[in-house]
Amino acid sequence: MSAHPSLDPSVVRWSVPPSERGDRPVLVLLHGYGSDEHDLFGLVPYLPERFAVASLRAPLAPQWPMPGASWYPIEGLDGRDPDAVTAAAHAVLSWVQDAVGPAPVGLLGFSQGGAVALQTLRVAPAAVAFTVVLAGYAADGELPGDAVLAAQRPPVFWGRGAADDVIPTALVDMTAQWLPAHSELSGRVYPGLTHSISQDELDDVRAFLEARLEDLDAHAQA
After folding, report:
1. What is the pLDDT of residues 44-76, one digit of tens each?
2. ∠ CA 180-185-190 to the nearest 5 degrees?
C-alpha cells in the first residue's frame, strides 16, 4: 500500500467552535467524488444537535475537468483500487487521532466518502464507534480488522437508492453480503432514489444516530 495522503486541517468545517466541543461525541462527514467539505455540511440541521460535526475535505484532485476533491482516483466506473481506498482511510484515521482525541467518533460518508468511512472502520475498528454509508460500498479484499468486526459487529447504517446507477452492481452485491457478516446492519433501499440523499433517508439516519447516542450513554453508565 502506498503512503497515505494527509488532510488539510485548516479547511475542516465544524458545527461548533472549539470552546463548545468538550467531550461531545464527534460525527465526521466524508463527501463524495468531486465535492468538498461544504457539501455534506448542509446535513447538519438534520442531525442530532448533540454531535460535534466535522466535515473534511478529501486530499486529492479529481481528473480535469471535474471540480472539487476526491478521496481516491476513479478510472471509469470499475476503476476503484482497494489500496487507494485504504490509503484514504489511513488519512482520515490520522486526522481523527490528531484532532479529536478520546471523544467517541462516528463516520458518515456519501458515495466514495462512504467507502472510505467503512474502510476506516475496517482499518481501525477500535477507533470508530459506528459508520453511516450513503450510496457507498465495501471495498474489495480483506483487511486485518475484518475478523474483529465479524466478532464485534459494530453498528453500520447502509442506505442506497434503488435507481442508483453510479456504484457498480458487483460492488453493491458484494457489500450486501459483506456487511451482514461484519456489522450490526441497519438501513434501507429507497425506491426511485438515484445517486443522492432523500428526506426519508435523512430521517432514518437521524433515528440511527439517536440510537447511537443512547448506546454511548448506556456505555458511560455501565
Report:
1. 999 999 999 999 999 998 876 778 999 998 875
2. 105
Q: Yes or no: say if 52 and 25 are a contact pair by the CB < 8 Å rule.
A: yes
Question: Are the C-beta atoms of residues 69 and 36 closer than 8 Å to each other?
Answer: yes
The domain made up of 9-221 is a member of CATH 3.90.350.10 = no
Which cell is 46 given? 438534520
How far apart, in whole angstroms, are the C-alpha atoms of residue 137 and residue 117?
10
* Domain residue limits, the chain: 9-221
The pLDDT tens digits of the residues spanning 154-203 come to 999 999 999 999 999 999 999 999 999 999 999 999 999 999 999 999 99
